[in-house]
Amino acid sequence: MPRPTTMPEGLSTGETVPDDVSALLRAWTDGDQRALARITPIVYDELHRLAHYYLKREQAGHSLQTTALVNEAYMRLVDYKRMQWQNRAHFMAAAAQAMRRILVDHARRHNVKRGAGAEHVSLDEALTGLAERAPRKAQVVELRFFGGLSVEETAEVLRVSPITVMREWKSAKAWLYRELAGPTANGQ
User: Fold this and answer.
1) CA dist., res. 59 & res. 62, Å (int)
2) Does residue 163 contact residue 171 with C-beta atoms inside 8 Å?
3) Residues near 175 by Cβ (< 8 Å), separated by ≥ 6?
4) pLDDT at position 13 over 50
5) DSSP letters of 57-96?
6) Which end of the chain is more exposed for a tag (fewer CB within 10 A), N or C?
7) pLDDT at residue 14 is higher than 80
């Protein structure tokens, strides 16, 4: 997704571009393709920051670049034809989840090429296990950790109270820690 440098098609320079992402997302959900053109320049910087955050946590020499991650995630989001976008937080949560999946897929391909066969539980596997046992806790982790959403934004997306988000977040972190630490932490 190249960063837009001109006004989206159909807008004159005299027209104001609404920056209410939630309203634009709802319009896009309702079939207004001009809304997508208006959203792009508004969310690009935020998507780029999110991708940069993910990639700086990757191992040195990672072959995926920030812009490529943004482009791939954006293309996946645009492809979500039946998504009923609620608001900006919902969109960013979906973007974070898409980026995480892209990075996991990229890492798997890279490990297969290198012949890495070490037995360990990855964060993705642990999160999948958590989702099977406690779906909302897994959603809280995805939104907070991967999506970078605040407690309040996470509560808004999940339609629960901030206190519930904090309780689920604490419990999910403890569960994931035990899973990732291995047999000694699990008492096995």
Assistant:
1) 6
2) no
3) 130, 133, 134, 137
4) no
5) TSPTT----HHHHHHHHHHHHHH-TT-----HHHHHHHHH
6) C
7) no
Which amino acid appears at position 157 of this protein? V
The string of pLDDT tens digits covering residues 90-111 is: 888 888 888 888 888 887 777 6
Q: Specify the amino acid at residue 91.
A: F
- Polymer length of the chain: 188
Q: Chain centroid to CA 1: how far? A: 17
Taking all residues of the chain, what is their mean pLDDT, rounded to a whole number? Answer: 78
pLDDT value of residue 33: 85
Q: What angle do CA 118, 122, 128 make, to 5 degrees?
A: 135
Q: What is the DSSP string of 3-58?
A: PP-SPPTT--TTSPPP--HHHHHHHHHTT-HHHHHHHHHHHHHHHHHHHHHHHHTS
pLDDT in tens, 47-62: 898 888 888 877 766 7
Token pair for residue 164? 């519930």
